[in-house]
Amino acid sequence: MEFSAKRRSRRTPTAETYRPQRWGRKWQPGQEPGIPAAALHGPKRECDITVVDFSQDDIQIRHLDNDSLRTSLEIPREDWVVCRWINVNGISGDVIQLLASYKNFHRLAIEDMLNNHNRTKADWGKKKGLMQRLAKLIYPEKSPKTPLQPVARSVDTDNSGSGFVTGNGHVPVEKVAIPTRTLQRYHGGPNEERTEYMEKKSALANKGLAVSVEQVSIFMTSDNCLVSFFESSAADVEMPIVGRLQSRETLLRKSTDASMILQAIIDTIIDLAIQVTTGYQDAVDELELNVLTGKLQPHSF
After folding, report:
1. What is the dihedral of CA 28, 32, 33, 38, to 10 degrees?
2. The overall pTM is greater than 0.85
3. Residues forming beta bridges with residue 131, ordered by sequence position
4. Which of 149-158, 182-191, 248-257 is predicted least confidently?
């Protein structure tokens, strides 16, 4: 039986559909959800990576960068290592690709990690994943309308650096100056002028304080390994936990359980958030006092 098909004429669209680039992939409507590790080609940014291997009797701490991470992962895990914690400060395409392939992260988990405006959530499966929001008080230093100039190294951003602040946390200033997002910028839209105005008029601005917000992604695997990703504040969480792990008398060290490290990270994030609530409570108390004593200037609407 013969079959003949006539070619249908197609009309050229008058406008091309907008398809933005997302971490090296051109977005298409209706495409397969998630991002496979092999297809991840995002921007490369210098990261601080800490690998903590420990047991009840011994502990080993290594500080790596983007280039030395691959070599370190190729070395087999030693028999004495009961638990491993890989802590990454910075979001870089090459580091995520290495660790996602190393621990076989689900493609949906990779996509969630790269979307830094996710809600707090936990996905439980073979690879347990958690998305958590970290908020802390910082002393802001207003940056000029040019990219931030780190002392020792550069940190690439998708933004030109305008409106970012330099966080004065536990990271030594001579090592790196990392641009962080304020609370207003985290929830702000494309209107840069409005975001800057909201930052200047923040309830904490007159106290010389600001709130920085970032997403934290944590993965716990079945081989008692924990992998955590911070945008810029890993040192604030890592330092106290590593200090506890270095003592054999602490519960973290005795348990040699990755889930205990996960709980310690969440506890530290909550402790940092309590400082934020305390700062706003002080601002509310001061506003209430001004209202009661009549010190507020009258406003007309």
Report:
1. -100
2. no
3. 121, 217
4. 149-158
